[in-house]
């Protein structure tokens, strides 16, 4: 029974490792979802606060407008009373003036010696008629007072009417804005409720996963196992996740196994075997150090970049080893280097050389990346007019934007943060830009160059994904050369003919000279599976040449 149980334990070991991996993946997904949820909730809260501020501001404006209308009405009433008072005073003044004039006329008639010569009857009739005119005028005046006592001047009325109309329009506009803000507020509340439901669901899923998942591995146990003790393990594990730590452990285990081997078995002469590994029998393990392998790979790249690159990279690699170590030891060094670069996937120099050597990348990818880094360093040197090796953060941002005009602002921000800039730091802080391009003794680049490389890979993936969406086909469907040409020109209108032909040549594996023109009918006969075309383009140096034109807004 003990033997049977031991067998069961051995059989369950892979399942345990698989459960650990699944648990880590689930934890990472949950952490990512929680981070995304927190960012969305904080963004919604900020937007809600902004909307509440806008509503308060609109309410304050409404209250101020109402108070202004009340003030205007009060002013209008005061002006009306003042005009009424002035009118009454004017009428009284006119009556007094008429009375004084009549008295003066009576006095002049009484003092005039010739007045007694007129006919008294005539004077009586004139007096009677004057009194009748006065009574009629007084009646008309009373009628005018009764009819137009509450009338204001037309000019004032039109002015007040215009002011009232403007205030009414402003009030209507504020009401419409208030309704829109209320609608947006309701939508935000609904979105907030749905977010809360999703959060509760994720929280319950997290609890369920935490209840059923296995505990995380204790990586501290590796300190006593890895060569170099705790200090070296802390240096290897710094900033790495569980998956990367597994790679580190595999490399450490592989190094020990590789050093124990004295010979490698030859793989034969089959067509599937790379030319630099075609050999029968056994070859010696040269057992170089990791640093020796890295220096050898750097020398190979220098020699490759210096020549015309007519031969294939695998043939060049074998010829390089023959020139360096002689034909007798070339094959042994080829197997030794191949096993080392296949093992050390975490090392930048080895992993890139392995990808190019095995045909996963075109060597133009590596060459173009090195040219980009060299050009960026040259631009920084040109900006450094004092040749002090120092740049301000503002100058660094300007150089990055001019060198990479199609990168988004957040990508430029990531590069600056990788270079040592922090949001709390000032733009006047100085940076030693030569340190951004330095390498350690194992050929590892600084975070700035690594971030530049990761952004290039992400941009290539986005570019190819955009191409796939533009084609609108499934990966297993066939696609013709004209459709790929049209899709490339749509997503990247600035593509020149030479670059476009190189992309098509890579995708359809045709020489550039044999590519048909757009007007030729036989272009419809050239078809390929979409997945194959995208995989071939993934191997090449694919970059965006210009921004995509925005569709016109209807």
From TrEMBL:
Keywords: Coiled coil. The keyword Secreted does not apply. GO terms for cellular component: cytoplasm. Residues 1-57 form the Translin-associated factor X-interacting protein 1 N-terminal domain. Pfam families: TSNAXIP1_N (PF15739). Residues 41-75, 127-184 form a coiled coil. This is Translin-associated factor X-interacting protein 1 isoform X3. It comes from Pteropus vampyrus. The lineage of its organism: Eukaryota, Metazoa, Chordata, Craniata, Vertebrata.
